[in-house]
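Priority: low. Protein: Protein translocase subunit SecD. Input follows.
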Amino acid sequence: MNRSNGLKLIVVVVALIVAVFLSINPIQNKTKLGLDLQGGAHVLLQAVPEPGKTITTDDMTKLKAVMENRINELGVSEPRIQSEGKDRLIIEIAGVDNPDKAIDLLGSTAKLEFKDPSGQVVVSGSELKNAQARIDSNTGQAEISLEFTSEGAKKFGAATARLVGQPISIVLDDKVIQSPNVQEPIMNGQARITGGFTFEEASNNAALLRGGALPVEVKVLEKRTVGPTLGKDSLHKSYIAGIIGLLAVVVFMFAYYRLPGLLANVALLLYILINLWIYTLLHITMTLPGIAGFLLTIGMALDTNIIIFERVKEELRAGKSLYAAIDSGFKRAFLTVIDAHVTTLIAAAVLFYFGQSSVKGFAVTLSIGILSNLFTAITFTRIMLVWTANIKSLSHRKLYGE
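Result:
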């Protein structure tokens, strides 16, 4: 029994150390940094009303939504989009060095129309379900594959049935891309756009079409490159400060709680690794508030272990055996831990629902940290404590701070 539990502990610790070293480069290379950490582009747009009309609140709401969709479709890091006055939008995009590139991505109207020979619109981009760039296997040319909604498919099918032998013009932003003749009715709700695109152009146009056409025209009032709020030097110093703080906490946990403190440090290492991999796999953009949320949950993870260990020490002082004290201590601490975490999780949900941009990033990292903390503290730490309690050389009460 002793040898089996000792072997399990060694295997877990070694596997965890190996996992940390193997994870360093992938996490560093795939972590996305927000505007405040790496800088980006700042663009000020003004909505331009049609003649005789005014810009409404609904127009600006739709414009903001389309901009958010476009940025998400193009895979750009977490943007900051906020209104200024009644007809302006401020857009800041991380990782974009060239403001002109940002304008090309955001300023295009992306108004798609299919017109018959008389110029009448038979299907519009609002009835588009999906758009994807691809390479034609026969010609090797880039093209955009379109899929219409059920209503759009009906309209397109009816139009192609009516116009067999006649051209249908594909118009993007009032520019005729091509005017192919209809060979036969197309009833499957699919079409394609060719026109000498490069694959990058096809991909950008497809992303803009998926994001939706702008509800109003916009003009650029200002464009500039912004630097990171912290700067590289300050960010490096923040890393150093974080490492020093973490080492101080690790030393304290070991010095005060002894063997349980050492196991808590191992669990903390697993906790950090789980969080960083979740951020990487979900492509979460790390901003300063997001990092603050992560560091806050590290403190919460240690607090959870402290609550549990103090309950275990109380049980040991009451005269219970080590194994019984561990079991009873975890049971007594469980409701307190769950209550604290659920309360914080509710607060994070409120922040995410009502917050904007970086505030949502804080809420996301906080929520992920809370959930992973419950696993590492209640499950992983407990398993390791039970293993050590069953190892004769590690079952002395003095090793548990008693």
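The longest strand covers residues 217-226. DSSP finds eleven helices and 13 strands in the chain.
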